Amino acid sequence: MPLTPAEARVLGHVDPKGMLAFLSELVAIPSVGGNETPAQELVARWMRENGLEVDRWELDLPALKAHPAYSAEIDREEGLGVVGLLGEDRGGRTLVLNGHVDVVPPGDPGRWSFPPFAGRVEGGRVWGRGALDMKGGLACALFAARAIRESGIGLKGRMVLESVIGEEDGGVGTLAAILRGYRGDGAVIMEPTSLAICPAQAGALNFRVTVRGKAAHGCVREEGISALEMLWPVHQELLALEARRNQFVADPLYAGYRVPFPISVGTIHGGDWPSSVPDRVCIEGRFGLAPDEDAEEAQEAFRSALLGLGDRNPWLRENPPELEWWGGRFLPARTSPADPLVVALEGAFADLLGRQAVAEGVTFGSDMRLLVREGGIPSVLFGPGDIRGAHGSDESVSAEELERVLRVLTLTTLRFCGCEDD
Fold first, then answer.
1. Which residue, 73, 61, 64, 65, is CA-closest to 32?
2. Where are the beta strands (DSSP E) in 299-404?
3. 174-220: per-residue pLDDT in tens?
4. Is the dihedral of CA 122, 123, 128, 130 positive or negative?
5. Which among 36, 133, 162, 167 is annotated as catalytic?
6. Strand blocks (E) in 203-262
7. Which of 102, 169, 284, 346 is an active site residue?
8. Could you identify which of 94, 155, 226, 352 might form a hypothetical disulfide with 184, taking C-beta atoms 3.0 to 4.6 angstroms apart as the criterion?
9. pTM as predicted
10. How far apart, in whole angstroms, are the C-alpha atoms of residue 126 and residue 140?
């Protein structure tokens, strides 16, 4: 579709250079989970300076911890909620744009080409921890709002910009925004999707499995039972369970993934002395869920697989692995591809970029499940960059993709919310 005069006018106010400068400043704040307040203060200040109505509040962490949907891996002492608002309800829809400022630790700085919190702009990319996941997407949303406001074109509906904390470890910031009353007719979460429009999100549950052995002096190790050796059949069973769960995935949104719902072990701890046979080894990881899967049924299948080891291993029959579910609980979510938000986003993408967007599901957890399940808001993920570049060294995002997402979000907002000069 050709752009209307109002749409062309708003897009003429898009400022990709200003967005890159702001993103560089935001990336330079080391907002590792639990220390997000300085980044939130910067976002709140930017919102005020650019004419948005700003709601800034201290999170009531004790009350949030009591909510059934609460999950976290970090015990925070403080947290700040920040929401910017543009437009009023004049018969249009309300669109929520949701992005998180918390980032994972950068690891060894020596493995980075640039300092992880330098916010360096080089070679057509923004470099640094959080540039991709997902301060870049948040910056796109903020500058979409600025373009609309500076154009003088009024919205018939409302734009709700949520800058949240705690997404990486459970979603406390988005849960807080929902409980504060922020709802919408649709929501876009600007996680890195390589510009794919993603109406389905897999789930992920944190697990902890403890394997017991029998301690002995290392000089007579055959008189003990090594928990490390007992871990081997446990891990092999988890790989077999993963293979069974991913063997017949019929969902076309996940056709491009060989293992869309993985079981991944992330940490291993065990033993207490070099010359002792270890009597305990503990592994922690994440258990992938399909978008429409019942979490409790999946957990039971996981538990049954571990208990089934006792049929083949006498030690594990007498000393079954101990299973705990802890920390982040990212339930899956899905939105209909016929939802007005998906249609508006696909149309804006096609009209601006001259091609149809790829539609697929994502295998990672996100705050989409809170927006859908707790907020009742049809939601999609759409953002710049490839998730494969997140959580590693040399994290970066393309300036070209940032600009494309900025323009698509701007046009989507105009069409979804409605604009007064149409």
1. 73
2. 322-330, 333-334, 359-362, 379-381, 396-398
3. 999 999 999 999 999 999 999 999 999 999 999 999 999 999 999 99
4. positive
5. 167
6. 203-212
7. 102
8. 94
9. 0.93
10. 13
